[in-house]
Amino acid sequence: MNEKNKDIATRVRGLRLLSGLSIEEVAKAFGVSPTLYEQYEKGEDDIPVSLLNEISNYFGVDMTEILTGTSPKLRDVCYVKKGEGLRVERYDQYEFQSLAYKYAKRKIEPLLVTLIPGKDPELVSHKGQEFNYCLEGRMKVIVGQDEYILEPGDSLYFNPMILHKMLPLDNKEAKFLTVILL
User: Is 132 in contact with 150 (CB distance < 8 Å)?
Assistant: First the structure.
């Protein structure tokens, strides 16, 4: 687990401790086992983005505070220049850039994602809804038992509660915009 993920886990643990709640109470609120929640707080397992959103709502903080340790200030407009998105390190197979990290109380999470060839990501699931728009390269999106090939300009909207993953094709990086409804 990288340092940023450990920092996120520490901030999540801090929120729980400040609220005076036990691991069991918080785990129950999020519908996960206390063992899994404790792994999240110790940085032993990646916290899904949808759960980070639930945690931020539950404790009344913005998700950017959990991700970065600082509070977003903007409420009307968030302008992010090319290459200046907040890097969110979640999985080795993906490079994420949050494109709205300065905007407080977001309802969606737009991310620029780069898929790294040669690494096979695990299947994941999370709450909400997900939209992917291929920008560069070719990618395979696996949703449940179905596979979709996306090329630049192609998009896919799906229920992310279904196990899914994205893979770059042709042994080259692929870039896509994902928008996750939180």
Answer: yes
> Which CATH number is associated with domain 3-68?
1.10.260.40
| C-alpha R_g of the chain | 16
Asked if residue 8 has pLDDT above 80, the reply is yes
State pLDDT tens for residues 29-45: 999 999 999 999 998 88
In the CATH scheme, what is the homologous superfamily, with its name and number, of domain 86-181?
Jelly Rolls (2.60.120.10)
Residue 119 CB neighbours (<10 A): 12
Determine the length of the chain.
Answer: 182
Give the dihedral of Cα atoms 87, 146, 144, 90; nearest 10 deg: -10
Contacting residues for 69 by C-beta, under 8 A, at least 6 apart: 7, 11
Q: What is the distance of C-alpha 153 from the center of its chain? A: 23
Per-residue pLDDT tens over the stretch 66-91: 888 888 887 788 898 998 888 876 66
CA-to-CA distance for 25 and 47, rounded, in angstroms?
Answer: 17
Q: What confidence score (pLDDT) does residue 90 get?
A: 63
- Residues 164, 144 contacting (CB under 8 angstroms): yes
Which of the two residues, 68 and 4, has the higher pLDDT score? 68
